[in-house]
């Protein structure tokens, strides 16, 4: 079944003269890695084809790949491929028209967009799927493509630690690591942080409050983030910075934005997405997001989070 979709995709690529590859807005290494990695594989297999990478260039990810200028005319008759993007609204860049649209993604389906869809929620990352495509079709993987795909896989799996890491992930990583890219310096580039972010992390570690149920909370007001010179999006990226704390069960970052207080919720056991849904959010059982519109509301949310921690502890010992 999967092989059929892969051959169908590769046939479609083979027939196209111009291929434009998109990915989601606010990209991460899996988005850019799968986009540029696929581009590299196609360009290597078919040097005469025009392959373009579309979307806003993300400064912190140019060590992986830059983006191309794509004009509206270039979409005429082009094959468009979108990687790592569950719904059309999250695609970075306008797609004025296309001959054929292909979706390649590992997120639970939100929109069934595209003429050909290859969605595999078992895959750790879209990069792992692109590796599979190369493996099944037997096309040549260059060292540059291997570096890009390895970057995305290791990012989405937390350096092969998260529960989405499977034997297939390790096999793909092993195969990619046969290529001559510098894994050590790649990891260094992926882990790089800024002084403002480092200072903010120091603040968070100092200020985190933990209850006896193992529930923890951090407040990040707009004023506070401004004083550190970081955006709310950057601040949210360190939500896991104390996840190794002994006795910790679930925690939340209250990140104040212009029109709401965003709640970034994480867990090491208690299921938290049901609670997130009560507060205009949702997500995965161990990682969710929600919104509050006042600090009083964050208090009642945290009370409920403490209950969730206490109940799941009781259930464990029943
Ligand atoms: Mn991904």
Descriptors:
318 residues; alpha/beta; inorganic pyrophosphatase (n-terminal core); Diaminopimelate Epimerase, Chain A, domain 1; 6-stranded mixed beta sheet; 5-stranded parallel beta sheet; 11 strands; elongated; binds manganese (II) ion; Bifunctional oligoribonuclease/PAP phosphatase NrnA; DDH_dom
How is this structure best described in words?
With 318 residues, the chain is α/β, with parallel strands linked by helices. It folds into two domains: 2-191, inorganic pyrophosphatase (n-terminal core); 196-317, Diaminopimelate Epimerase, Chain A, domain 1. It is 41% helix and 18% strand. The chain has eleven helices and eleven strands. A hairpin with a 2-residue loop joins strand 10 and strand 11. The protein is elongated, with a radius of gyration of 21 Å. The model has no long low-confidence stretch (mean pLDDT 95). Bound molecules: manganese (II) ion. The site of manganese (II) ion (MN) has 6 residues, from loops. Manganese (II) ion binds next to loops. Its EC number is 3.1.3.7. Residues 227-310 form the DHHA1 domain. Keywords: Hydrolase.
